[in-house]
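Before the break, one more example. Copy the sequence into your notebook; we will annotate it together after we see the structure.
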Amino acid sequence: MIDRTDVLTLLTAQRGVAAVAQLLELGISRRTVIRARRRGTVVSVLPGVVRMAASPDTFESRAMALQLHTAPTGFLSGVTAGTLHGLRQMPRVFLEVTVPEDRQVVMPSWGRLHRSSWIDGERDIDAGRADGFRVASPLRTMFRLASVFNDHRFERAAEDAWHRGLVTPEQAADYLVAIRRSGRTGVARFERWLEKTAFRSRPSQSGLELDVLDAIRRAGLPEPQRQHPLTLRTGEVIHIDLAWPNVRLGVEPGHSWWHGGDLRKRADEARDRACDEIGWRIVRHDESVREELAAFGLQLRIIHDERVATLRSAQARSL
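Here is what the structure looks like once it is written out:
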């Protein structure tokens, strides 16, 4: 059976898996499929779906098997869609698929079924992807993640999606208007993220930035502005990751010699001097700060309080 070019082409395009119905459409008899199973040429993955035995059992092959198993109405969603969209730190312990709420589907132990009463194929499903997967659209994916993640994890996923150009806050706001309905989980969490993006034109640049932001909040500091635009004396506009404009204090990731070499380290130093010229102090950090985030947050609070006291003193002298 797998010696046929058309069968091999189908299996190759679908990560080594195929629906039995697809094989029948190619003229392969059901008896031939049964013989191939007995010989170990193919193995059953799900009811009505087989995998070429020589093809590895991977995340992608299981995702395709779920897609074929729930066709034509099912689509990969949640953390599985997040992974396929390239989002970082998406769990792979199980794979999720969404189907209409009135559909019954037998699921494997590694699969999760999500039933939904609201599915707009054109708006909610990316069906024409080059990789052949039928996946929840980025906005539908983010809305689903908002219903299963806590605020901390969702904010990271949303910033990652924005950073990758998959969604924008404006698109997310429009999407919420279109699908809002009382009782739908995830709306409030999505709105909380949108509130935090209200004064930003750029996404957070890294997960480390969000970790530092958490440390700042735990230290009791005022909420900083994120990706704050700052015009240097030269006219160049830069963006400070985390900033308190009222005290001209910013927090930026830095490059150690080991991670960036002399050129990037010198670029960081030159940028800091340019900020000094206009009265801004920049506090830099690298990945090592993860080991002492609480202490770093407290140090920032001391620096922030010192900036407040210094500026107040300067204002008092000028009166």
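The chain has 13 helices and twelve strands. The first strand starts at residue 17 and ends at 19. Try to locate both features in your own notes.
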